[in-house]
Amino acid sequence: MHQEATSMSVQQGTVAASTSTQTTTTVAAEDTVMVVHQNGGGGGGEGSGDDGGGVGLDVTVSNATTQTPVTMALEEVNLEITDDNDNVDLEVPFTNNAAEGSGGLSSVDMGTNYQISGPATTITTSASDPLDTKDGIEELCPVCGDKVSGYHYGLLTCESCKGFFKRTVQNKKVYTCVAERSCHIDKTQRKRCPFCRFQKCLEVGMKLEAVRADRMRGGRNKFGPMYKRDRARKLQMMRQRQLAAQTLRGGIGDMYQSSQSSSSPFGNIHIKQEIQIPQVSSLTSSPDSSPSPIAVALGQVSSNTLSQAVSNQQPALQIVGVQGTPSMMMADNKLWANSTTTSPHSLSPKTFQFDTVVPPSASVPTSSKMSPLIRDFVEAIDDREWQNSLYGLLQSQTYNQCEVDLFELMCKVLDQNLFSQVDWARNSIFFKDLKVDDQMKLLQHSWSDMLVLDHIHQRMHNNLPDETTLHNGQKFDLLNLGLLGVPTLIDHFNDITAKLQELKFDISDYICIKFLLLLNPDVRGITNRKHVQDGFEQVQQALLEYTVTCYSNIQDKFNKMLQILPELHSLAARGEEHLYLKHCNGSAPTQTLLMEMLHAKRK
DNA sequence: TGTCAAGGCCAA
DNA sequence: TTGGCCTTGACA
């Protein structure tokens, strides 16, 4: 029924000596193709295998991609989930599967797969574990969920996955999957499908180049310092979590104890679970149970389906008090929004040297002159949330990784931005009254334009930098987000930005233009065109009046702004094309809202 | 000199 | 073929 689109491409271990010869082995089984390019010869011949003396193995795992159909509406889902059980697991999956089958919904994402498990948030530690004795933490192998034995080939894994990865790379094994390349890998089933196991090893970040070409024993490799930093960070994080757990135990427990019959301080706490983004690695877990990303984003799935789906994804949870009481603690990035805490778990805006958001009112001329419509628009803008989501994602994605694929990371950020965009739209005037079918069509038509526009807005009005340093030391090109991954569009992007700056493009202009992009009555196939047209015209009229009233010194600002939109669209279209090609090449994460949007236009 | 992440060995 | 344990050796 559901056909899972899985494709991945990994190219690492490019360290073959210049004299090496290259052989290529291709093994095809039905629609599965696994190509192993082997750099033979004298790889690692000089010196040790350290510092990149990898085996020079380029592995491409690919298959024909089939599109995920957009799941059609069932019912509006309430993402607030009440856990009435006494036991609340605070268990966090590394990527996805580690915590699968553990009860799913009652879990709080704190960024990695430490276990802080219930009842009553007992922090699980075991004195027998190597990490426990030093760090007070226990971790699970991101591949199979077994206990980790240390850092192996780039990250913390168990002994068996270490051995499996080593044997596979050293012996240039070629596996095929007899199923659909989406086998679930856990401790009990890891032996069943080596193809999927190896694929998962690569997905979670095990490094081909860490396997030594010369098989030299002992010593250290280039990952040593990263392991060290990682370890220090985990230790700090663990302490932070212990504090958080204590806060929860004391704070929320005290607050609600009197009203709860439960012995647990967590009794009846509402756990609001937000879909963050579908993780690439979640592809290995029962894809048939996953609703379409856009369906999830638009709230089109039944609670049952969603429950199953979210348990397969990396959740970002908020814990909120009952009856809307402000929470004592908010999970992940929301925690840092109003906090000066320099948690190792957070990449706060401060860490990123991201300037404080300018309040909307500060960058619009005079709010008294604007129409109530525009005032409402502006008031609804939540740039702080945008920033926090961005940096929250960047930190969570790089937390346990020594090195991440920056393109993949960019796709994930874009995907998250898309989710925010959908969320914004579905709560917006005019749009929210439309049927889901129409909503989807409008979004599918405008998402990329709006992403580019959002980025321009963040740069112009919130001083979003063009680059940031990730936790693992890698530089992440934020500007690339605005270019949808096409560096050559930089001049085009700057040109558009310059023109808007010249027109004193402000936040009111931005939000109105965004509405105009969204409420495009010319989109084919929409059933309630009149409503869309009405919305479009009202916004257009409001913007016109606003520009005339507040920017009388800029001649024809309104029309000049509208003239820039085709340029914006052209840039976004080129970005879309680029992303689509990357996706077809297997270089972009699949099963994401982003990819579904890319596919939607090509239906 | 201790640590720990490589590779190696070998029973299951 | 797997996976637990052993050996090795650069580095702090």
Describe this structure in words.
By secondary structure, the protein is an alpha+beta fold. Helix 8 crosses helix 14 and helix 14 (507-518) runs antiparallel to helix 15. The protein has helices at 130-135, 159-170, 194-204, 224-257, 293-297, 303-311, 333-337, 372-380, 383-398, 406-426, 436-462, 479-482, 490-502, 507-518, 529-550, 557-584, 593-600; strands at 8-10, 22-29, 32-39, 57-63, 80-82, 90-91, 115-117, 122-123, 150-152, 155-157, 270-274, 316-320, 467-469, 475-477. The chain binds a DNA duplex (12 and 12 nucleotides) through residues 48-50, 149-153, 158-164, 166-167, 170, 190-191, 194, 210-212, 215-221, 223-224, 227.
From the structure above, extract its key features.
603 residues; alpha+beta; 3-stranded antiparallel sheet; 17 helices; 40% helix; elongated; disordered N terminus; DNA-binding; metal-binding; transcription
